[in-house]
Amino acid sequence: MSTPRPTEAAALTDVTEIERLLTRIAYLAGRARQHERLMSESGLSLDRASVSILRHIAESEPLRPGVLAVRLSVEASHVTRQLRQLETDGYVIRAPDPADRRAQRVQITDAGLAAVDRIRDAGRRGIGMTLSDWSPEDLRQLAQLFQRLADDFVEHAEDTAERRPLD
Questions:
Q1: Model's pTM, two decimal places?
Q2: By C-alpha distance, which of 115, 126, 114 is closest to 51?
Q3: Which of 37, 64, 114, 124 is exposed most, by the fewest CB atoms within 10 A?
Q4: Percentage of the chain surpassing pLDDT 90?
Q5: Confidence class of residue 115 from pLDDT cuts 50, 70 and 90?
Q6: What are the CA-CA distances from residue 109 to residues 39, 92, 114 (Å)?
Q7: Which residues pair with 96 in a beta bridge?
Q8: Distance separating the N- and C-terminal Cα atoms of the chain
Q9: Hey, which residues does 52 pair with through a beta bridge?
Q10: What is d(CA 7, CA 12) in angstroms, rounded to the nearest whole number?
């Protein structure tokens, strides 16, 4: 094995640090205490999985539950249970799929959109407090870099899925 050149070693160190920090941020953002604060401030009572599913549905066109499970990288049965509760609570409805009447698509209701708006508002307030000392230029740069990172993660995930052998 060859010794990495100085620029390669620096890049590896940077990537290692980025991975460490992303892991830390994901942990801090996903903690139960953080979720409880978000629910308290939004005035809602949803579990973390329901929030994730509801936000995803709000940001997409009506879609089949199986497609939603694939996009969230979870088992279809998990999504089905969560959707049942979200439907009971009036946040989503199921409608026939126009391409195949035997299948159903899930779409968000007005109550679901209102809930997502409340969650987003509470989240923005929390992030706003955290970043209150940042300059507008730093915030703009961070948003641009996060967008690029998210796009690259999605592209990489799609490339990886396409290369995965079929059983």
A1: 0.76
A2: 115
A3: 124
A4: 62
A5: very high
A6: 19, 5, 9
A7: 104
A8: 34
A9: none
A10: 9
